[in-house]
Amino acid sequence: MRFLPLAALAGAALLTYAAPAQAQDKMPEDKSKRPSPPAVVKTTVDGTEVTIDYSQPSLKGRAAFGDKSPLAPNGEVWRTGANEATTFTVSKAVKINGQPLAAGTYALFTIPAPGEWTIVFNKTAKQWGAFKYEMKEDALRVKVKPKTLAAPVEQFTITADKSGKVALMWAKAEADFMVK
Which pTM was predicted? Predict the structure, then answer.
């Protein structure tokens, strides 16, 4: 009868217990438990389904926008939410503020700046944040004028209605664009 050295037995035991742990890593993450929970906005505009899938960061005493903001600094590409890049899906070709956008799913980025924001529809929809954003993948960019809200919005919120108005609201800022 042959005996295995103690180190070999310990290695075999480790492999036995490591397999279930690795299997747990493959299980889907419960995104609702994130500090910035997921949200989905759906509407139908003139027979076109519009879906916006995003995560909702909270201010927690921080500045949302501006030169000193750690969240969405002026002039920098922002993921328009938190976690994965926000996605914007349309079932048919549409016009965004009068400019054509083909049917499909896009990453929705925003470039906030004083007095004018740029809304970006990027062809690389599946990406984490804006870390690998490439301008050459932009399908469309539109300029919008932000509004100042009377009361601050603590948790980033996107709304969309049947008229086609999409509103991005956070802190005391609101930026809108139209889907037709």
Answer: 0.79
Q: Scanning the structure block, which residue is given the tokens 């969309």?
A: 160
Joined together, the tokens standing for residue 127 give 């990406």
Residue 101 pLDDT: 98
Domain spans in the chain, listed from the N-terminal domain onward: 29-178
